Amino acid sequence: MSNISLDYVRKSYGPSEVIHGISGSIQQGEFVVIVGPSGCGKSTLLRMIAGLESITGGEIQIGKRVVNKLEPAQRNIAMVFQNYALYPHMSVFDNMSYGLKIRKVPKEEIRRRVEETAEILELTPYLKRSPRQLSGGQRQRVAMGRAIVREPDVFLFDEPLSNLDAKLRVQMRLEIKKLQERLGITSVYVTHDQVEAMTLGHRLMVLNAGSVEQFGTPIDLYDKPATLFVATFIGSPAMNILNGTVSEDASSIILPEGEVIPLGMRLNAQAGASVNLGMRPEHIRLATNGNALFSFKSDVIEELGADTIIHADFGKATSSMAVRLDGIHRVSSGTQFSFAIDPENLHVFDPESGKRIN
Amino acid sequence: MIKRVHFPSSPLPYLLVAPQIAITIVFFIWPAGQAMYQSFLIEDAFGFGREFVWFENFEILFEDPLYADVFIRTIFFSVMVAALSMFLSLILAGFADRVVKGATIYRTLLIWPYAVAPVLAGALWVFMFNPSVGIIAYWLDLIGVDWNHFLNGGQAMALIVFAASWKQIAYNFLFYLAAMQAIPKSMIEAAAIDGAGPAKRFWTIIFPLVSPTTFFLLVINIVYAFFDTFGIIHAVTEGGPAGSTVTLVYKVYSDGFIGLDLGGSAAQSVILMAMVIGLTVIQFRYVERRVDY
Ligand SMILES: Nc1ncnc2c1ncn2[C@@H]1O[C@H](COP(=O)(O)OP(=O)(O)OP(=O)(O)O)[C@@H](O)[C@H]1O
Ligand SMILES: [Mg+2]
């Protein structure tokens, strides 16, 4: 077990820089998820920690060692690949024991450790099979087993669940979480799936175009997204973003149609400056007598049983808007609704920099 | 029941395959038939009469200890050529697979020997190893090896093994490289993370994974060494000294065209033909059914 620290880590392929100075530290035993859209550099960053990509600038430390110049083998890490990368010509047992054999662990101990790990992962009946004879989920487990059996300082995962079907993915997600808690090994997990990220990670590093947008707990990211990007990336349905301007006294936002949304605080912004106002669909309530802040006519209604999602085109200047109401609301489209929202659930962003300003 | 697709009958398909069939008949089937017929005849020494003798030519061959020697020598030669050229190309492909910079140049250079005609390749080696003017013979002399493949049968054999292997390296290299590049990169990376160094990865991961290619190339190389090295042997040693580099194919030529024993030579080529057919069957049955993971 080790902590990992990244200090202004950069990566260029030729003239193009794909990782622009990422810093952050990962505590011992922590489960950190790197999440972001396709092509943002998640795999690249993970592979730099693993030693599979060279580091163009900055420093990576695992434990007390700077590992920039160390071979993958010397970093005492284990990695689970998206395609599992099992050795097809070896049995499950040999796959799991390969790393131990190379490290010259005594035969008896290898056998004990592999059998123990197989027990945890329910792989015991398959030890003699070749990977070809396993299902996707079982292969995934073997890949995990190969990592666990080595008892590494750090686990690295690169989208290990993306080749599984939806149901198995949810199941394996839970297993990985339980396993990580049980073993307490520092883990870095890459995914582009925000639900996976939110459920697995102690903390999430949200990456966008090679830079960190925010690094915090799932609740931090949900409650106080630091940027417009994080605000829309985390949460489903995505946060509604409305255009608005700062009021005279800087304590409310005026929407294009003239509605005034009080913020319950004073913004550090010029009166009349344009801002983006974010509201999560699940934070918007139906207004009860007289506290309505804005209203619109519903368009499409999705009744999901547990909740109802109302979609609408809001005003002239904004795109579509979604509201999620608990329970079943039998409404037809075209109904006029009035809504309210608590000031602490409002998110205000500077449209220029995308940064949060409230 | 197998469903058949019926096409309206038309002479066009027959016309389209006719040239291929004609070529096969004129250049392969007919000579093969001739050889087969010839192998049943014994001509008298002056070429005036011939006698149909059934399998007598074969009986003579199988009783001839010289033929057995040539057979064993050919097997030795083939195994050496296959082993040497496959081993070298495996190693070269292993390096080429790792090269990042200048990979194309490196690969192109390695493919060149394949484009050199066998006789030229042979001439090249003869020249380099020429006891009086050859550069390698000179170097060998410096380290105390007295090289003269015109006199020393063992050295002559070594020389044709080198020349024949060198010629085949490019071919093997291409197949090995293609096979290695088909191995998912993440598998190699997984092994690296598991702690295996480059050599360990090569022998425990890459080599086993290219084993279908190894088997395929083994058959191809044996066939090559058996049947396709006449040009090289002819250019390098002409079977000498004292017949120490005569292989089966070379013996067909020297018995038939030099010794003018047409019947015996034809019988030998029939035996070779049977072997080619055998090897081809092996190749179809075992090699084409690729092992995939
Ligand atoms: N070998 C390479 N040469 C040049 N550019 C590369 C190379 N590898 C990756 N890149 C670029 O680096 C960027 C980040 O790639 P990376 O694989 O880390 O993305 P990712 O976040 O893992 O995406 P995904 O979710 O699709 O896996 C991409 O824009 C990609 O084009
Ligand atoms: Mg990736």
Topology, element by element:
The complex is a heterodimer of chains A (358) and B (293).
Chain A: E1 4-13, E2 16-26, E3 31-35, H1 42-50, E4 57-62, E5 65-66, E6 77-80, H2 92-102, H3 107-120, H4 136-148, E7 154-158, H5 166-183, E8 186-191, H6 194-200, E9 203-208, E10 211-216, H7 218-223, H8 228-233, E11 240-246, E12 252-254, E13 260-262, E14 274-279, E15 285-286, E16 294-297, E17 301-303, E18 307-313, E19 320-326, E20 336-340, E21 346-349
Helix pairs in contact in A: 2-3, 2-4
Chain B: H1 12-38, E1 41-43, E2 50-52, H2 56-63, H3 65-98, H4 103-111, H5 118-129, H6 135-142, H7 153-181, H8 185-193, H9 198-209, H10 211-227, H11 230-236, H12 248-258, H13 262-287
Helix pairs in contact in B: 1-13, 2-13, 3-7, 3-10, 5-7, 5-11, 7-10, 8-9, 10-13, 12-13
Protein name (chain B): sn-glycerol-3-phosphate transport system permease protein UgpA
Function (chain B): Part of the ABC transporter complex UgpBAEC involved in sn-glycerol-3-phosphate (G3P) import. Probably responsible for the translocation of the substrate across the membrane.
Family (chain B): Belongs to the binding-protein-dependent transport system permease family.
